[in-house]
Amino acid sequence: MNDKNTLKGTTTVGLTCKDGVVFATERRASMGNLVAHKVAEKIFKIDDHIATTIAGSVGDAQSLMKYISAEVVLYKMRNGERISIESAAALSANILHSSRFYPFFVQTLIGGVDNTGAKIYSIDPAGGMIEDKFVSTGSGSPFAYGVLEDRYTEDIYVDEGVDVAIRAIKSAMERDTYSGNGILVATVTEEGYKMLDEEEVQKRLKEIS
């Protein structure tokens, strides 16, 4: 995540598992060559069954998350049921596409669990929307993908997926100068959204090192 209008910094990871989805990011926010913040929040809860990650401009990310969260709440009020993951992703893509002449400088991962199972979508700043089993964004993504391609399988469960995601972020932090200052991990299952506490992340990090 970067304080300038650029997708230069950040590493985010999202992957689907048999029982849910896992999101992970590092915590550094950069402004050019300056580490502007060391505790940036890059994972956002949209609803109990939906979460997102953001790579890009801090201001744009915060505004977009408020916009999406409000629309998801309105959907539930109007329809009396929670929005599907595909519909939430399409909604996000439409917001970005409609603003393409004054774009949000962000790349978004949105995913969660609904009646059709676990899903993750990658959405670019112009509103392009692609479903995938695992995906990474930001400047550290080439390093994260090396781990994901090697470690990910479609039959893993969330508990194992957390370790894969942590490995991917750790790899990016070791090689990408714009990624660092800790790891955030969140899961979404039928039981809802959960952000892992720092102690658990550090324990798992030591176990896989």
In a few lines, what is going on in this structure?
With 209 residues, this protein is an alpha+beta fold.
Structure in words:
By secondary structure, the chain is of the alpha+beta class. The chain is built from 5 helices and 12 strands. The strands form 3 sheets. A 5-stranded antiparallel sheet has the order 10-1-2-11-12, with helices on one face. Strands 5-6-7-8-9 form a 5-stranded antiparallel sheet, covered by helices on one side. Strand 8 and strand 9 form a beta hairpin. Helix 3 (141-151) runs antiparallel to helix 4 (158-175) and helix 4 (158-175) crosses helix 5 (198-208). The longest helix is centred in the N-terminal third of the chain and has 22 residues, at 58-79. The protein is globular, with a radius of gyration of 16 Å. The two termini are 25 Å apart. 48% of the residues are buried. The model is unreliable at 2-7 (pLDDT under 50).
Top keywords for this entry?
209 residues, alpha+beta, five-stranded antiparallel β-sheet, 5 helices
> How many strands in all?
12
Helix content: 25-40%
Secondary-structure element order, N to C: EEEEEEHHEEEEHHEEH
Instruction: Please work out how many helical segments DSSP would assign.
Output: 5
The outline comes out as globular
| CA distance, first residue to last residue | 25 Å
Structural class of the secondary elements?
Answer: alpha+beta
Helix-strand layout with pairing:
Blueprint: E1 12-17, E2 20-26, E3 29-31, E4 34-37, E5 43-47, E6 50-56, H1 58-79, H2 85-98, E7 106-114, E8 117-123, E9 129-132, E10 134-137, H3 141-151, H4 158-175, E11 183-189, E12 192-195, H5 198-208
Helix pairs in contact: 1-2, 3-4, 4-5
